[in-house]
Amino acid sequence: MPHGLRFEKRVRTIAWAVCGFVTCFLALGCGKGDVRIKPTQTVTGRILFDGKPPVGANVYLVQLNEPIDPWARPQAEVGPDGSFAIGTYQPKDGAPAGEYALTVSWWPPESKTPDGPVEAEKAGKLSNPMAKVSGGNRLPMRYSTPEGSPIPKVTVRDQPIELGEINLTNK
């Protein structure tokens, strides 16, 4: 093959590759973004368990009346003062519009280890008798289900929501 034809073939190949790359780039860049990510609204509150903040407890918003969206898992961790701010796609970014039940669980650090709550109980580190029954959850099991939710219905629309103080008890 003469030198001029090889050069021309290379130029054509590079031109087609550049056209393909530009086409893909434009097709991806012109969309509406990830349609799985829905707009969110701020949802905040404060939780106390027997008058004290359950530091590190997990707060979840469980969807009601709609199929569970695998991409939207609104949740938060309770801070030292009992406060929480729900995050779905990023920490504290809020929750998508919908109806939810608020559930709470509080897994002690020892239940997150391979030894689990049984070893924690043997060592005398289990402070809540319910933890043994519920697989390590320091809170009564009723708080970890939509049916026993301390707030059975949270409706998220187009405005931020402050849930106020939620008092959980061991009774």
Word description of this protein:
- The protein is an alpha+beta fold and 171 residues long.
- It folds into 2 domains: 1-31; 40-168, Immunoglobulin-like (Sandwich), CATH 2.60.40.
- Helices cover 23% and strands 26% of the residues.
- It has helices spanning 3-29, 116-122, 129-133; strands spanning 40-41, 43-49, 58-63, 75-77, 83-85, 95-96, 98-105, 151-156, 161-168.
- The strands form 3 sheets. The chain has a 4-stranded antiparallel beta sheet, with no helix packed on it. It has a 3-stranded mixed beta sheet with strand order 5-2-9, with no helix packed on it.
- The chain is elongated, with a radius of gyration of 25 Å.
- The model is unreliable at 24-29 and 112-134 (pLDDT under 50).
List key phrases describing it.
single chain, alpha+beta, Immunoglobulin-like, 2 domains, three-stranded mixed beta sheet, 26% strand, elongated
